[in-house]
Amino acid sequence: MSEGLILQKHVKFLIRHLNVFPEQYCSLDTNRVTLLFFAVSALDLLGELDKLLTDDRRRSIIDWIYKLQVTGPGKFCGFRGCMSFASNDGGGAYSSANLAQTYSALLCLAILGDDFKRVNKDALLNTLKKSQKGDGSFWSEGFDSESDMRFVFCAVAICHILQDFSYINFSSLRNFIRNSLNYDGGIGQGPGDESHGGSTFCAIASLSLANRLWDGSVLSKQEIDRLVKWALWKQDDGFHGRAHKPDDSCYAFWIGATLEILNANHLMDKDKLRSFLLIAQHQHMGGFCKIPEESGYPDLLHTYFSIAAFSLLREPGLAPINASLNVSRHVYERILKS
């Protein structure tokens, strides 16, 4: 087992992905801006981003992100994930913003030091308003698209970043979260769905960002206590997202951050979690694998969330993270001042 983080190998792994994505990511092309977020946010947490990016490279990336912005009357505005479906006049049939990619784009801009002056906030927030369904959840990218707890989080996070919650119906959002709360204490992607580490984080982080977590308006103290127990039951060595599933490095963040937000991170076994993450490192290529195995292949998602989890564990040399928004605290503070 590795005795510590192989930091320089992780940095090199992230730089390679910042320059060009391997062929394994072809199917994720429409999520390109989220992949960018994994790379730049991980480098930011490692304290390496400012050392590696020249001013010209930084401006180039920012300009590319703004090319992904979708605006115009009648459109679902915000940011798309890539340029694949863009047309010269911006009117392509698939030229629609996506809530998850918009969240990622805004965080990338903040990490890179942009001031949001080119963000069409009115168009974006009006899209959020019309994206909210009657049950309180949100369409991901237009009517009849995906809708679940992931996009509730994205919508609330976007409003938090832009510091305007007036476009969200919190009464129906509250009902959606409550209706997704299960008998075991966890929260599903929607009403009737199995409790899941990712959706539980999305719900709890949303309530935290909206200042609705501790006022009793959505969850009672007893329900929060039961949720903490549910989260703690998901630890063997690392964390797993659902009952009877193997531990997975990305849930070190999803469930670790949930416990952090709920002021209960001291209850988990941090030594076991740290050891699990260390053996999920790829010793030759850098990066982190989904699970510790000799034949495992590291990827950006598991690398980012493993590094974010190490930040939650207060690993020396890593920047502290804001667990609710999923970005370093110094970037979070910059967002609040913008």
From TrEMBL:
<dbReference type="Pfam" id="PF00432">
    <property type="entry name" value="Prenyltrans"/>
</dbReference>
<dbReference type="InterPro" id="IPR001330">
    <property type="entry name" value="Prenyltrans"/>
</dbReference>
<dbReference type="GO" id="GO:0005953">
    <property type="term" value="C:CAAX-protein geranylgeranyltransferase complex"/>
</dbReference>
<dbReference type="InterPro" id="IPR008930">
    <property type="entry name" value="Terpenoid_cyclase/PrenylTrfase"/>
</dbReference>
<dbReference type="GO" id="GO:0046872">
    <property type="term" value="F:metal ion binding"/>
</dbReference>
<dbReference type="InterPro" id="IPR041960">
    <property type="entry name" value="GGTase_I_beta"/>
</dbReference>
<comment type="similarity">
    <text>Belongs to the protein prenyltransferase subunit beta family.</text>
</comment>
<protein>
    <recommendedName>
        <fullName>Geranylgeranyl transferase type-1 subunit beta</fullName>
        <ecNumber>2.5.1.59</ecNumber>
    </recommendedName>
</protein>
<keyword id="KW-0460">Magnesium</keyword>
<dbReference type="InterPro" id="IPR045089">
    <property type="entry name" value="PGGT1B-like"/>
</dbReference>
<keyword id="KW-0677">Repeat</keyword>
<keyword id="KW-0808">Transferase</keyword>
<feature type="domain" description="Prenyltransferase alpha-alpha toroid">
    <location>
        <begin position="7"/>
        <end position="327"/>
    </location>
</feature>
<keyword id="KW-0479">Metal-binding</keyword>
<keyword id="KW-0862">Zinc</keyword>
<keyword id="KW-0637">Prenyltransferase</keyword>
<dbReference type="GO" id="GO:0004662">
    <property type="term" value="F:CAAX-protein geranylgeranyltransferase activity"/>
</dbReference>
